[in-house]
């Protein structure tokens, strides 16, 4: 397996997701759905590693991608300007994508997937809401919230289809990438609300955001490397791809 095969697999999944949620008016004003290729890569890891992957798993993966697209559309609404046509249509796009994955799930009759994704959406939203609550939280609690937001839905998908051994890999990988994004945003003064909450927690501990986040990333990368190296269920080329993907994504983010 090489990088081209992996990229083609991600591109194929993106195409299938786009086909399921295409809408001419929404695309004209809001563009194609926002899909994070890092999340799609980790969503496909069992498939790329040669696990049994039938049409049911592929359709479920498409549905997970649509869920992420719906949530991303709502996340991209500007808090201080939700009155323009583009902003209003972005809200509608998120609602439309949500309707599509509910419709697809209902038609499939996959009750277990409905249950797992519903649990994942609830957990994600609960953790996003925490930034608005008047309650102090530790840095570790914010890390846990970020991890749930980034990888919780994929973890639910993996749990359903007996891919649970992959969950620690994707949790640490996607948390590393989220922290890298927050660190880059911090340099530009464009942090997310959760990033700002984490920064406040860091300050309360008398530390600097740069040193704490950089240290956490290094620690997570060390743990992730150990997990990958010790994972007997991973093929050697997948191990290489996992190591390379985080490094490449970090380099891209910092560039």
UniProtKB/TrEMBL annotation:
Q: Does the keyword Transferase apply?
A: yes
Pfam entry (one): HEPPP_synt_1
**Which Enzyme Commission numbers does its entry carry?**
2.5.1.30
A GO BP entry is:
menaquinone biosynthetic process
Q: Which GO terms describe its molecular function?
A: heptaprenyl diphosphate synthase activity
Under InterPro entries, the record lists: HEPPP_synth_su1
Which top class of enzyme applies to this chain? transferase
Q: Does the keyword Nucleotide-binding apply?
A: no
Enumerate the UniProt keywords alphabetically: Transferase
What is the name attached to this protein's record? Answer: Heptaprenyl diphosphate synthase component 1
Organism, per UniProt?
Answer: Lysinibacillus capsici
């Amino acid at each position: 397996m090489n990088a081209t095969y992996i990229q083609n697999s991600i591109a194929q999944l993106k195409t299938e997701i786009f086909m399921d949620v295409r809408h001419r008016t929404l695309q004209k004003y809001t563009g194609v759905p926002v899909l994070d290729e890092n999340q799609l890569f980790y969503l496909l890891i069992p498939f790329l590693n040669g696990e049994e992957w039938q049409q049911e798993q592929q359709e479920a993966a498409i549905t997970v991608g649509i869920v992420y697209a719906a949530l991303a559309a709502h996340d991209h609404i500007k808090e201080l300007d939700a009155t323009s046509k583009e902003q209003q249509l972005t809200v509608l796009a998120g609602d439309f994508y949500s309707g599509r994955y509910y419709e697809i799930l209902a038609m499939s009759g996959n009750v277990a997937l409905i249950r797992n994704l519903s649990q994942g959406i609830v957990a994600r939203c609960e953790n996003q809401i925490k930034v608005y609550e008047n309650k102090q939280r530790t840095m570790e609690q914010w890390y846990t919230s970020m991890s749930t937001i980034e990888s919780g839905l994929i973890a639910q998908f993996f749990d359903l289809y007996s891919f649970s051994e992959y969950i620690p890999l994707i949790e640490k990988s996607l948390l590393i990438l989220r922290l890298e994004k927050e660190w880059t945003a911090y340099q530009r003064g464009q942090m997310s609300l959760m990033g700002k909450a984490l920064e406040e927690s860091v300050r309360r501990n008398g530390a600097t955001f740069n040193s704490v986040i950089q240290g956490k990333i290094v620690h997570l990368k060390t743990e992730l490397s150990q997990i990958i190296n010790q994972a007997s269920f991973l093929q050697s080329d997948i191990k290489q791809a996992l190591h390379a993907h985080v490094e490449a994504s970090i380099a891209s983010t910092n560039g």
